[in-house]
Design brief:
Blueprint lengths: L1 E12 L4 H18 L3 E9 L7 E10 L16 E4 L5 H10 L16 H10 L5 E3 L5 H13 L2 E5 L7 H10 L13 E4 L4 H9 L8 E7 L6 E4 L5 E3 L13
Parallel strand pairs: 1-2, 6-9
Antiparallel strand pairs: 1-3, 4-7, 4-8, 5-7, 6-8, 9-10
Length: 251
C-alpha cells in the first residue's frame, strides 16, 4: 500500500521520565518526516506504576493499494528470484544488547527503517513483483516458509549468499542462535520474475536501506510448501519454521 497516515496511542506508566517520553516522540517525528507519512491522530492513557513496563506504544497505518499490482504471499511462482534487502539479525541482537540480556557488549544497531520509498522504487523498476514481505518475528526462515506454504511452491536459498554482519554472526554463535531465525525490522524480502530480477536489485541498491541487497535464492515447483537451504559445505537441508521463542515479544 501507499501510506497516507499513522495513528499513535501511548500507554504511560506512572512515573515515566518526561525526558524519555520527549526523546521517543522526537524520534517518531523524525522517522515520520523521513518516511513522508504524517502522524495524524493519537491518544494517551496513564496507568498505575508497575502496570505498563514503562511505556507501550500502539500504532496503525492506513493507505491505498494500486489495483495494477498483484502482490501477496500466495503469488510466488516457479522460476522467480528471491532477494533480501540487507543484512539479517541486526534488530534482534540489538534488542538483546539494549536490554542487558547479553553477557557482552556489541556495536550492533537496530535496522528499523522506513521502506516505503524503496518499495516504490522497486515497483517502478519491476512492476510485476510477486511478493514483498518483511521478515520480522521468526526471521527470514519462518517468513519464507509462510510464503512457500501460501504459494504452494519450493523456495531454495543459498547459505553462502545470505548477508550477516560479523558482529551479529559472532553473537549468534555465542548464544546458540541461527541468524536465519532472528527478528528484523527494516529488511524486505522481494520475490520477482527472473526477467525483472536485475532491475529490482538495481533499484534496491540505489536506496540507502537497500545498499546491501542481494540475491539469495530461487522459487521452484517441488517440494511444494518447503524451504530448502544449500549449506556452505554443499549439502541441502530443510529449513523449517522457528520453534519456540528466540526473543521475548516486543511488538
Amino acid at each position: 500500500a501507499v501510506p497516507m497516515g499513522l495513528t499513535a496511542s501511548f500507554i504511560l506508566e506512572e512515573g515515566l521520565s518526561t525526558q524519555t517520553l520527549v526523546e521517543i516522540v522526537k524520534s517518531m517525528a523524525e522517522s515520520a518526516r523521513e518516511a513522508g507519512v504524517p502522524i495524524v491522530a493519537g491518544d494517551t492513557k496513564v496507568v498505575e506504576r508497575g502496570k505498563a513496563d514503562g511505556l507501550f506504544i500502539s500504532t496503525a497505518g492506513f493507505g491505498t493499494f494500486p489495483k495494477k499490482y498483484n502482490i501477496g504471499g500466495a503469488e510466488a511462482k516457479p522460476g522467480d528470484i528471491v532477494f533480501i534487502s540487507g543484512t539479517l539479525g541486526d534488530h534482534g541482537i540489538a534488542v538483546l544488547t539494549a536490554r542487558g540480556d547479553l553477557a557482552f557488549e556489541t556495536q550492533v544497531e537496530s535496522d528499523v527503517a522506513p521502506l516505503n520509498h524503496m518499495i516504490q522504487q522497486i515497483l517502478a523498476a519491476a512492476p510485476h513483483v510477486h511478493v514483498l514481505r518483511d521478515p520480522t518475528r521468526g526471521g527470514l526462515a519462518t517468513t519464507l516458509n509462510e510464503i512457500a506454504e501460501q504459494s504452494q511452491v519450493n523456495i531454495t536459498i543459498d547459505e553462502k549468499a545470505i548477508p550477516v554482519k560479523p558482529a551479529v554472526q559472532t553473537a549468534c554463535e555465542m548464544l546458540g542462535f541461527d541468524p536465519l531465525y532472528v527478528a528484523n525490522e527494516g529488511k524486505l524480502i522481494v520475490i520477482v520474475p527472473e526477467n525483472e530480477a536485475d532491475a529490482a536489485l538495481a533499484a534496491m541498491k540505489k536506496n540507502t536501506y537497500g545498499k546491501d541487497a542481494c540475491r539469495i535464492g530461487r522459487v521452484n515447483d517441488i517440494p511444494a510448501g518447503r524451504v530448502l537451504l544449500k549449506t556452505q559445505i554443499g549439502a541441502t537441508r530443510i529449513l523449517d519454521v522457528m520453534a519456540g521463542e528466540m526473543l521475548p515479544r516486543i511488538c
